[in-house]
Queue: 4 jobs
Job 1
Amino acid sequence: MPTTDLEQRSINALRILTIDGVQQANSGHCGLPMGMADAAYVLWTRHLKHNPKDPAWPNRDRFILSAGHGSMLLYSLLHLTGYPLSLNELKQFRQWGSQTAGHPEHNVDLGIETTTGPLGQGFGAGVGMAIAARYLAARFNREGYPLFAHWIYAIVSDGDLMEGVAQEAASLAGHLGLDSLIYLYDDNDISIEGSTNLAFTENVRTHFEAYGWHVQEVEGHNTDAVDAAIRAAKVSKGRPHLIICHTHIAYGSPSMQGSARAHGGPLGASEVRATKEALGWPSMEPFFVPNDVIAQYRLAIPQGERAEAIWQDMLTNFEQAYPEEAKELRRVMSGGLPENWEMALPRFSPTDGAIATRAASGRVLRALAPVIPELIGGSADLAPSTQTFVSGYGDFQEATPEGKNLHFGVREHGMGAILNGMALYGGLRPYGGTFLVFSDYMRPAVRLAALMQLPVTYVWTHDSVFLGEDGPTHQPIEHLMSLRVIPNLTVIRPADANETSAAWKIALEHKRGPVALILSRQKLPVLEQTGRLAREGVARGAYVLSDSPLDRIDLIIIATGSEVADALEAQQLLTERRIGARVVSMPSWRLFDEQPVFYQLNVLPDNVIKRLAVEAGSPLGWERYVGSYGSVIGIDHFGASAPYQRLKTEFGFTPERIADRAQQLMVE
């Protein structure tokens, strides 16, 4: 229990700031912050290694509020310990322009390590952070220089543990023995609909022990018990840690404690007053915190400065002992790429023969592996298909943390969340692969990566119905369109090997969010023009691949991916019919839309109104490029199981069918 009255009032300050913030906003969640105030106080004042005056220093402990609906708990902790989050920001909770959104939004300068709210995502991100820390420790730590040696803490809820993404991540964390993870589970037996007995009666302890976790159970309102459990976790090696904190939701509220009504929404003015009275709070003034409580929390500043100073001294000595390694460390942590790294990007020639863009991507990864050591990733048990395995660089496993090949298992959603955590940690360029159709399993994590503008690369292969015999369950139809509408996600569907190489260059240089590479299963010819044009053309999103051989442009064919080669053949057929066609390769809508208008008009001149878009996916959205007088050859139905050549014929994606449709368009 709290050893002093000051400690008790410091704990209650978290509850008071929460209920005042939610009451003033007239929305929010009081229950979790009030229930976990004791455990959070212990963690933040006795264990968490952090510096509010330098929130981003690399060897800080990470704290994740995976149960992001309890955001007022995090905001209160950040304000009280001295981060640049003012009391006025707490008063503006959930209001326009404030830094205290309804759910935490990633801002390292404020001490918010990751965006949370969609339950389970923070759980998975923490696993990614632990993987990143272990990999960087294996790469840079030396005897006497533990540059990466810290903990990743999280507060998780019943809702987090019910989500499949958390279970996927927990299973992998146990397999990898990620013992830097210490998660505090708010076990209050309440969900939005009522008791967790309605739907969640599993034995969490035995469940996580079966995953390979070290599990303890404590009374969550007993600060000494929580403290002892964290200390025990720190000395238990080889397993991630779950501390089950048995708590009461809305602890301290006379009428709402233990009730599902306390999960979301304000307590109400009368209950706020009653709670302050029950807790013995010295003032009814909203957002009042005694000066000695603030001073108690602000001890985090000198403690953090001392911890960071010790680490900085170690880094200085490391630089003297290992100057080349130190230079490399500074580069990767700053997010910079090695000098002249792009020289390693392979170029392809038509004489190389046809090559699937997934295979071209694999060749790019193998070429870059020795040049960009921080490029690390894997797939959801599909590496032979996605070509994401890099030979000669080992597997990332508990015994081999220096390995560059991650095996996520058949866990697409967990992979997405883990990639986010790796990117958030810094110093890595993470990528993950699966079939495009299974990007649906990753979508919540992809959306958060886009929201946080993280440098994650997705390698999504088997990009159309032309994957063939696996049939409609594995053939993406709506996926390209649905991914293109996600803000900040750059989708690139390259036409051949050279465009694939150029797409990887963009992915590694891009700084405004994740990049999705959409790659073919079937072999595609290396186009003669891309050797000269792809590097700049892909960066601009679309470019003139082949202009009309006639002295005029009657029609523009716009295509992506495997359909570009067919468009070029159709162009030849149209030339024989005396129709002048320009072929535009458009691997990325987003990149093209970002170009100056004069460039867009140069590629798609507005005086050529006959336009035909060709893409083996949903035609929705293409009207923005083909206009009122154009047309689209797409697919608005599910596919079929057959060799891809037969599917091309049946679905109208042969050069002849494209030329026929273009000719028809000319007379409409």
Job 2
Amino acid sequence: VDVQAFEREAKRILKEVETECGWMYETLHTDGKTKGKINYTVWSDVFVCPECTRDVIFWEAAVDKKAACVRDEFPCPHCGAMLTKRRMDRAWVSKYDIAIKQTVRQTKQVPVLINYTVGGRRAEKVPDRGDLALIMKIENSDLAYWFPADRMMEGGETRRNDPFGITHVHHFYTKRNLWILSALWKRATRKAKFGITNILSRNATRLNRFIINKHNPTGRINGPMTGTLYVPSEQVEQSILQLFDDKVIRHGWQCCGNLVSTASFSDLRQVSSMSCDYLFIDPPFGANINYSELNSLWESWLGVLTNIKPEAIENDIQGKDLNEYRQLMISCFKEAYRVLKPGRWMTVEFSNTKASVWNSIQTALADVGFIVSNVSALDKQHGGIRAMFYTTAVKQDLVISAYKPNGGFEDRFQKEATTQEGVWDFIRTHLKYLPVVKHGAGATHLIAVTERDPRILYDQMVAYYVRKGFPVPLNSAEFQEGLSQRFSYRDGMYFLPDQVAEYDKKKMTAGGMEQMSLFVSDESTAIAWLRQFLKDKPQTFQDIHPHFIKELGGWQKYEKPLELSE
């Protein structure tokens, strides 16, 4: 991309659209003389009072501007009856939709607040007659340019707004914003369209939320709710002209020499085998987010929709259960294994509230040949909306570190697999990849490296033998006896000779050693682990859950799988 040429083109497009459509964002200042430019308009749902059957504008009845909060219970402004959102029915409007050539019935919204700029300063006002007349004029006009009017695809998120009459792509935009977007799109070059997609499914839509609370007493734009197509009761209609200027032009563009591919990760035929030094993968987390459904809004503008057949998610409508998800992830990890150089690492970021999904990821990694060496928690400063609001959500993502065995070991293993030496060669190689120490809270205490636990080492060895199609030459008791004879033992963990010296040194300089965590593999060990974890202080479900998931070393097949909530 020629950045300067791109910016010149974007500015030209913006100037043309402003000249043609700028009048749509004009409003009269409260002095009755000066014109201002609208920054955004807040729209509110309208309900019907069950007592007097008159319209109740939610913004006016429920939002307490002085207390800066939205009240759960509030009086009807007409009859005084105490109301809640659940007790009221929605108000409806019917209109002819020329784009789909049929009459549609949709929930009623009205503009309740206009934020605008006049004389270089921001101001706010309640919409006046002129503002309402302007909106009516736009509503009664035919759009001059193409816009997508596709039926929303089958899906839990894409069809969640059907009961409210929001059934097609263009219903997710106000008529004014749809007009401006279509005018920009008509003029945009291919590269400019890439920039416009930045706003098509978020701030430009009716998903855009307006929040008022004690932290934001005058209210603020909060953007759409992450991971859903939820339409809020208080929507923000932002100026598309300002969004285009901010997100596409002022945001700035840089070329860093990155290569971007839009292929499926299950088919990386354009990447040579054993060519990658390191892989970082942030895959779909089971059924957490339905990506193709959420993408369908802006993809409809491009006229190209995601091929959902290889999409690696759990989705009832797509007919994909946990096993299907696991198989799709295996196909992706197979390609990752192929393109990664021997002896090199892959990091997988993962988050899911279900132990079954977590175990599916671990087994998928093992099935293709990766060996998991470490699982850590990634404490992101700003969690997703689900992590913040739902008690069963994981507040921290987990980071799985796995490696591809080097070629030298693989060659030796083929010769030694039927002997006990193959077992100990595997353990020596694996111990080299494991961290010697982990630091606890505040980096003053050391915590046990659970991957060095003899039970986990045995499971890793067995899994490797089974995957390679060889019989396991040692049972658990023989394995543990051999470990103690060949490797150094400290605090429930085994080390190579050079590693144990490093461990002893770091333990002496650290503030202490936290208790060895248990390897959770069945109900009994899960209960024991939970008792130990809660021994020092009470903790919330949200705090415990990521640690519980991290300690799942592989649920025993004869045990009924249990979630932490159970």
Job 3
Amino acid sequence: MSLLSIGVSGLSTNQTALQVTGNNIANADVEGYSRQRAEIATRPEFFEGVGFIGSGAGVTDISRIVEGFLITQLQSDTAAFNNLSAYVSSIEEMDTLLADSFSGLSPALDSVFSDIEAGAQDPTSMPSRQLVLSDMEGLVERFNTLYQRLQRQQDSINQQVKAFSSQVSSLSEGIANLNVSITEEMARGKGQPNQLLDERDRLITQLSELVTVRTATEDNGAVSVFVGSGQALVLGGNYNELVTSNSTKNPGQLEINISGLGGTQQITSLINGGKLGGLVSYQKDTLPEIYNSLGRISLGIADSMNQQNKLGIDLEGNFGTDIFTDINTSALTQSRVIADTANTGSAALALSISDINQLTTSNYFIDFSGTGSTYQIVRESDKAVVSSGVIGAFPATINVDGFDLAITTSPNAGDKYYLNPTKTAAQDIALEITRPQEFAYASPIVTGASLGNTGTGLISGGTVLSVTGAAMADITTPVTFVFTSATSYNVINSASKAVISSGNAFVPNTVNTYTSPNAAYSVELKGAPALGDEFTVDYNVNGVSDNRNGVALGGLRLASGLDNGTLNFEDAYGRLLEELGAKTAQLRISRDASESLLMQSQKSRDGVSGVNLDEEAANLIKFEQAYNASARIITVAQQIFDTLLAAFR
């Protein structure tokens, strides 16, 4: 009977092993399936007088062949690759858009300045003026279109963030439900539920495609899942959800919150890895830079052209007006400040641009503490505190980084405001001029030298500095420079003959600058004038054919009016493209490297847990032969038993 028992145990054991092998073969192509193995152990021995004799073998467990480290590494590399993939996809879209010869800003900038330069050669030509007007309309449209494309990308990112957050919640629910089923099965003491364990690992890997997760296995077999800085997505059979809400600091952008029995917590800044992390990083690091770089260029062009055009005379003899909408209208200054929704005060803040040259491409925020009069302004790009102190009385104005922040009344302690000096400027720019005659190509002053001069003195054409307030009196007052010696001159009102200033020092053969009393203009006197030589500055009443202010308008193309005098408009846009292109290229390299690591991790996991069909085929033969051998043992046992019975007949 012992021999029969041993044979039967062999049949049962090898039949189970064959079933496990067959199951492996059937699931060879199933994603996430872990190879299984029948764990075979010998049965207890029995003393049979002469020694201990074995009683066969049995299957003690059906185990999964897995390596926890490899699964964790696969999930980590999955999160890293999907993070870079989502980032690259977004940044490539903007890199292509901004660098394109049709959709980018460079062609529009070049057309405007080239046609201003050409039009200044014939300042009375209506066709050339009309061409400049059309080009400026095209430039405004290009700025507006680029801003709209940025907004559309932001909307697309919002949709993805919302969809991915919903997927995270669904996967978390699935993992929690599997935890319940797994702990129930394991509590019965019948071994591990391999299929449920595989499914849970598969869901956690899918979750890693969306966000970096950390896991912890409990004693009862449940797995807890955490995101961010330790926020729980899954705790045993319970799970929390990711939900979205409108941003308090960036209208049109979504924040990510974790919501559950413990309440709701905003975790956008804590999200990393996976597709969600990639989108959050792009929104935080790259998208604001594009918005603000385009906005700063827009502000620079609008303000510099407005100021220059107002220093000239248009085709109808009037002083120039704004070409573009004033960059500091009441509506615009208020729109650049966003109050935090948690504020308890109602102070009104307005941000006006004071110096384009000092503007950065960063956003800012201001915090109030104490009684509401203590403040600090933080630049978000480098987290530097750029201004802080105590406001003595309200209303007050704080100047920092090229903008003025006007605060009308005292905020409450703890109030916070977000400051966006340049973000929406590409959307806000609009053309104010409607007729080509309004381009002020002529200078309001004209200079000259007396025909009777005997020296070698020269006077420049003059540079107009201001035409507002008291400066207008300087513009309309004709003056004569009369040299009383080779080294001095008087300034006389040409109409009234009144002396404006006398004994002005002059250094021969150098540049001597004279600025009018109210700083309306400056002229340069140089060379070696003789005693009695005269030079004049007159109001250019009928000088519509003059092109000097038109030349100055065209000269703004090369003026380094951005980034503390280091960049002109085209250079600033070129730097944006250069930085964006370099960042895109580097991220592509990182993404490709991350993909290679992911493939290696997948290969390593499959090398341990994947099904090798050659190995399984060999196992089929081995277990089949063992099964046949066990059957032969039973046959032999039966023959022995039959022989024994025959001996007693």
Job 4
Amino acid sequence: MKTKVLLITPPFTQLNTSYPATTYLKGFLDSKGVYANQCDLSIELFTKIFTKDFIAHLFKEVEKNNEEIAFPLVYDQREDYIQKVDRVIHFLQQHEVTAAYQMLQSNFLPKAHRSTNLNEEEFEYGFGNLGIIDKAKHLATLFIEELGDFIKANVDEFFSFTRYAEQIATAASSFDEIDEYLSFETTIIEDQLLLLIASKLEEYQPDLVCFTIPFPGNLFAALRCAQFIKKHAKKTKIAFGGGYCNTELLSLTDTRIFNYVDFITLNDGEGPLLKLCEYLDKIITKEELERTYLLENGKVVYQNKTPNTIFHHSNLPAPSYADLPLHLYLSFLDVMNPMHRLWTDGKWNKLTVAHGCYWKQCTFCDVNLDYIANYQNTTAEDLVNKIEQIIAETGTYGFHFVDEAAPPKMLRALAEELLKRKIFITWWTNIRFEKTFTAELCALLAKSGCIAVTGGLEVASDRLLEKMKKGVDIAQVARVTNSFAENNIMVHAYLMYGFPTETDQETIDSLEIVRQLFENNCIQSAFWHLFTTTAHSPIGKNPDYYQIKIVGPKFKGFAQNDLYHEDPLGADHKQYSDGLNLALQNYLNGLGFDVPLQEWFDFEIMPTTHPNNLIASFLN
């Protein structure tokens, strides 16, 4: 085909590894004879900002434009930050032990609001005497985070390491605020972004630029880039796709976003993108486009010729990492919990064991959407072939299988195939805590290189687990997580509070279950989420059945996903946030198991109804 495609991940996603969407699409387009390049503006913008020259420029701009400077400790030590930022970034990319010793010298790195609050006792306990690289990585991370806080407070209110302007894109039922901010003058951070996009346009000369927008925190940066392309490369067409579009823009009617883009595609990108290339090459007509929004006669039109061209998961080629600057990715170590660091530390190739979710019943989940509802499997031979191909391209042996819930049958087959072919990788994935994960299977997975799993415990209440159709109970979760832990596979549990009709008693009982799971080493990491109703979940579609009331936001033509609700039968859920998180932070560090639950809260709570040996009794 003649059409040249440029696939872009806009800032900001992960900094330790590339987001997988463009790699999937690059591999696919290559197999179809489409000339495609890709770039990750997340890591490229980050490494453009955190340089000696730019940080020096930044401090001068702050001095010139700010009457009152936030984080004065950073500003007062600006010369130290300027002179040492290149060294710190290089260390976070290379992890040289000689550099680590330098980072640990007491007067080498400046100390501001984060590092001065470092708990030395916890620091030494977390890393010990021999954890030289990890100690240095943590201090180097604090150094970069202090600069990030300074940038956000003094230069660009939208700045963040893993998202950008997320606050105006989340639950953005109207395009008004986003459109208004796009009319404002760019910040010096955005100026660097636009310099990058200009260089990519010059280098690749694309006919079609495709932005993958996985999260709300990628939307505004993508629109800034699109705005620039519309002004400076008028013949270049622009398409948006990705997770944000697939969940938030299913009811799109507002035409204003088409001032910035030409096409918005939904669900898996392979089919719609190939059709777009054929359309731009004049092989097909506009009416033959699939799952694509465009503007016609001043109205938003959804072109979707059926039956769709389907590219089954088992028939897709391996992702391609060509063009990506693999040497630029860096590792952060912001918390000392070994499970949390998997998200920010180390380089991981991303791959999907199966498309969609084999369970797809959880009532809080967007089970009606294609990326969950459309379950497709493949073979272990196919997966391992792709693994070998990716290793050859990246030189990286770490894999994160990014499934909604990796099916245990496929994980068994994968493990057996890896062992049979003597391919030694390190891997982790997301699962359901179902009884199929026996001690024998967990041992097999560990032998094949599995080091960690994440899974949804959600609300640790059997009544609510049944109400949310999780298909598990607490006893089962305890036994499954224990089987993983006994095979040295770390377990991270996603926890939820505020589920419809959840009572005060159930909230406290859930915390007690979590305490016991940590105490018995069934789980080593966890995170509390406050329940949010989404428009595409069974709860969002039938709130009356779940005894809640949807109170907004009113849809105004743009995004529709997160909903506001009232729970007249449930507890005052938000009042528990601080106490739950304080307790969890202690449990994560192996502390506080003997502390009464009341101590975590600054208001009176009821005692738990669970015996203190409940989890132990399930394990016995």
